User: Which sequence fits this backbone?
């Protein structure tokens, strides 16, 4: 029986905007009520106007000014949420309305009979007998309107020009900045985020290529000897070769998933620098990297086991020394198998590469380790390849079918845990494994009994709790 067959953006208004809106309403209402005090404080004269505001007029002016500022901020925030075509439309409306009102007043001012209008006529030198000045003022206002409207379009469309430049540079692969900045409203923020993801993918691939080239140039002589060849050229002549090796897959991940792709890459890359020398120290070589970890190859299973423990300890030390809080956790999967290699690459840059499906098997084992919350997990083939007198604390974790053709027994390395935690797991090993055996045989009552005994002695056993929960679920459905 397969042990693991059963496993398998905010659209609401921002708080600050709500506060601004409430303040705007509170200020605007009294400013409208006191608006007459402003008009009464502006007195027409033969030569223009004089300003003589009383206390109410000054208060009304202050409230009106605050209302205009708050209204402008709210309108700007509203505009920042719009797409480009709507942004151009709504940002132009106030300008068009103001322009239309001024032109209308200039054109009809001579026909208005009151002291205020007469003062404006005197100030602007407008009269029914002097249509020339009216036309000049209309032209001046129109030119100012066109200038302000052009400036408005320029500011709004400037991010689009930046997008064009960035896309052109991305097409040429020339962007080196850590972060691309576009500016503009919400739509451009989305575009900026997408371009940064593309840029970071470029960088990641570029770094992977550089790493791959360096690795190809320094292909270990140990690998060639493991393959029973003297150099890569001999491997090419033989087309492919199969040898038994031990593969170690280290999957790095962090506590939270809110970091950017670039932040992930930079953080993981910094851990690679410490892990890579450890692989070399234990006579292994790095087969390849991906965005979350690496695959290393060892000639002996014991080297892979010892390397995995040192990697785990190194990551703990690095986490303690990293004061930024960006700590990584690790899952390590180990598999001993007959692996097929072939020389792959250009004529001057060929490298022995795994062409069989062991990488997929490691990824499947890693998924099981993730579900069972195990740190280091290895197959029975690894256990069988260890020396007879090799000391290792471990426990049986279950079996899994690989690609519906092969069942693999999995074990958990207990030496990776702190001493007090490892002692509890070792002490309960027999009870835990009997629970798994009964679970595999379909005797869920006995399995639950063993898992209860295990959890009673060690409540923090994560794998034990997972098995206990699934056994109860199986029993309930029966």
Assistant:
């Amino acid at each position: 029986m397969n042990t693991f067959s059963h496993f398998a953006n905010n659209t609401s208004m921002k708080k600050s905007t709500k506060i601004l809106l409430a303040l705007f309403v509170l200020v605007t209402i009294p400013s409208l009520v006191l608006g007459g005090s402003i008009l009464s404080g502006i007195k027409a004269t033969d030569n223009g106007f004089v300003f003589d505001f009383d206390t109410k007029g000054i208060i009304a002016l202050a409230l009106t000014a605050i209302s205009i500022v708050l209204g402008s901020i709210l309108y700007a925030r509203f505009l920042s949420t719009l797409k480009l075509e709507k942004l151009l439309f709504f940002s132009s409306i106030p300008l068009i309305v103001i322009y239309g009102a001024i032109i209308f007043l200039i054109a009809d001012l001579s026909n208005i009979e009151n002291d205020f209008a007469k003062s404006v006529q005197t100030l602007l030198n407008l009269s029914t007998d002097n249509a020339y000045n009216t036309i000049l003022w209309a032209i001046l206002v129109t030119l100012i309107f066109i200038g302000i409207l052009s400036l408005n379009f320029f500011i709004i469309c400037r991010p689009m020009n930046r997008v064009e430049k960035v896309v052109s540079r991305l097409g040429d692969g020339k962007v080196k900045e850590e972060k691309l900045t576009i500016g503009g409203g919400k739509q451009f923020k989305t575009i900026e985020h997408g371009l940064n993801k593309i840029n970071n993918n470029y960088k990641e691939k570029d770094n992977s290529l550089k790493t791959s080239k360096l690795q190809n140039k320094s292909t270990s002589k140990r690998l060639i000897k493991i393959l029973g060849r003297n150099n890569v050229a001999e491997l090419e002549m033989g087309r492919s070769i199969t040898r038994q090796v031990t593969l170690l897959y280290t999957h790095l991940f962090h506590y939270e998933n809110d970091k950017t792709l670039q932040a992930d890459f930079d953080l993981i890359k910094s851990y690679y620098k410490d892990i890579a020398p450890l692989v070399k120290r234990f006579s292994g070589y790095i087969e390849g990297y991906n965005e979350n970890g690496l695959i290393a190859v060892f000639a002996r299973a014991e080297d892979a086991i010892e390397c995995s423990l040192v990697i785990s300890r190194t990551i703990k030390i690095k986490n303690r020394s990293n004061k930024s809080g960006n700590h990584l956790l690790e899952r390590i999967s180990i598999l001993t198998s007959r692996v097929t290699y072939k020389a792959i690459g250009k004529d001057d840059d060929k490298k022995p590469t795994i062409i069989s499906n062991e990488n997929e098997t490691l990824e499947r084992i890693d998924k099981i380790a993730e579900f069972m919350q195990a740190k280091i997990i290895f197959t029975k083939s690894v256990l069988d390849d260890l020396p007879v007198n090799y000391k290792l604390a471990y426990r049986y974790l279950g079996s899994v079918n690989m690609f519906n053709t092969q069942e693999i027994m999995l074990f958990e390395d207990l030496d990776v845990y702190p001493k007090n935690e490892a002692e509890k797991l070792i002490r309960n090993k027999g009870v835990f494994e009997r629970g798994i055996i009964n679970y595999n045989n379909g005797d869920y009552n006995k399995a639950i009994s063993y898992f209860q005994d295990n959890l009673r002695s060690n409540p923090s056993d994560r794998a034990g709790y997972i098995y206990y929960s699934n056994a109860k679920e199986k029993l309930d459905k029966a």
